[in-house]
Amino acid sequence: MFKKLRNKLLILNMSMTSAVMIAAFAVIYIISYNNVNKEIAKRLDPQAGMLTVIEGTELPDDAKNSESKTLNRRFSSDDTYTFSIQVDEKGRILEIDAPLNMPEEAYNKAADIAWSNKNNSTTITLEGRQWKYAIAQIKKQVIQEDGRSYTVTENKYQIMFLDVTGYKKTLLQLLTTLVSVGLIMLFAIFIISFYFANRVIKPISEAWERQKQFVADASHELKTPISIINANCDALLANKEETILSQIKWLDYIKIGTDRMTKLINDLLSLAKMEDMRFAIQKVTFNMSSAVNDVISSMEAVVVEKDIKLTRSIEPNIIVKSDAERIKQVVTILLDNAVKYTNEKGQIDISLVKSKRHVTFSIKNSGKGIAKKDLPKIFDRFYRIDPSRAQGTGGYGLGLSIAKTIMDRLGGEIYAASVENEYTIFTFKIEL
Fold it and tell me: Final residue of a domain: which of 100, 132, 163?
């Protein structure tokens, strides 16, 4: 189930990332392609260099009806070659102006192809290079002696050819680079997405496993008191003629079972309520020193009964803004836990101090202590270091989990430290 969820997250992330990346690369390529085409169109503009100025009253006869065919060779000033061919209205070559030492047949072929496709400018290949062309009718401007001018349109056409091999190569290199970078990025994004998808799924998987364990543990804990109640009910039903007084021990056992079940249910409800984010925390200003002293006073009888030495170091009049009842609940849980696991004639030390930003409560008890391997798990639900002792103390392993949940909701922190066979200390901090 979780692998399917991870794969769905991975596919969704890869699809969105790929779409954005492809769109970005497509925009880059289209902009570059348009810029190249604009540059080509600019260099093939028939208005550039095709307007000739002639002084005099009329055109020379040889300029009007020149039928001679000439071949002028020149060199280009840059790496991009151009050449032009003048043709008459029937496409016959009149003049060739070229920088390249190509055979005349190549120019004839170029002129034939261009004139045959004069309404559809395409790219042609000559001598291993690609050429783009544009056809324009030759116009000449005549300036008379009196300053007036007019334009003469001749029955001649100029075909301008531009070497676009470099442009095409540049676009191909750009496309190859974008595809290569895209594939590398997709691979890198896949690895990163796979890693983070696993990280996202991990807490969900752990929460699911904890929930399953919680249901199993709760069922197991409820099973014991229910079994006690059923067994004692059967005992009562087996002696229907007996009086209630003679059967009082069975009723006492039933009462013990119902009390245990009630405590477990109340703890589960308290835990569920604190974990529900819709449950509002009532933060008010109160005297935390007095609240801690009240909790200690309410449990002094239990401490005395177990012959435990209790010392307290409570800084007076510490005022905080928090949920007073929840703070008292945490202190009660920690003190009750300390009393349960303190050895006979042992010692409990309680302190409450204030710093600039925090109030720190700690409770230290002597006793068996907690093993290092168990420390990370003591705040888990139903976790008990010694299940056999838990039956004697009446615990279900929910108290510390409730305390941890309360501290999380209050924005505080709680942690434990222990040395086996010496002491255990629990500490929580809340902000002022």
Answer: 163
